């Protein structure tokens, strides 16, 4: 995977003495911004600190019955992604397919109607991210 190289800093000395007062103000802002971007993109960027989403863990028993998650974003949810599935009934059990969350937006909540790929009569712990 490609690594981002730190860009060269802008230098006030590269400009004429008449331009230096203005350039120094701009370069201070630009150099700090570039350092922050490079730092963020080289392993300091975290999902939870930088993306607006609901990252939650839910425990369900199949077939699903009355499963919902509180929507704290004050916006309708547009999609969901399952990050992890743990079979609590049989840790060696396999999924029947890729898990996909079927949901409906409610007032202040996300009602989960179905999660595909889960085996019937089994208890699961899922890490799910909901996106507005």
Concise account of the structure shown:
Helix content is 22%, strand content 34%.
Structure annotation, total helices: 2
Question: Radius of gyration from the CA trace?
Answer: 24 Å
> What is the N-to-C succession of helices and strands?
HHEEEEEE
Q: Give the rounded overall mean pLDDT.
A: 91
Shape, please?
Answer: elongated
Q: Class by helix and strand content?
A: alpha+beta
Could you name the ranges where pLDDT drops below 50 across 5 or more consecutive residues? none
Largest sheet: 3 strands, antiparallel
Fill in the keyword field for this structure:
132 residues; alpha+beta; 2 domains; 3-stranded antiparallel sheet; 6 strands
Can you walk through the features of this model?
By secondary structure, the protein is an alpha+beta fold. The strands form 2 sheets. A 3-stranded antiparallel β-sheet has the order 1-6-3, with no helix packed on it. It is elongated, with a radius of gyration of 24 Å. The two termini are 30 Å apart.
Question: SSE layout and pairings?
Answer:
Elements: H1 20-44, H2 47-50, E1 54-61, E2 67-70, E3 79-87, E4 100-106, E5 109-116, E6 123-131
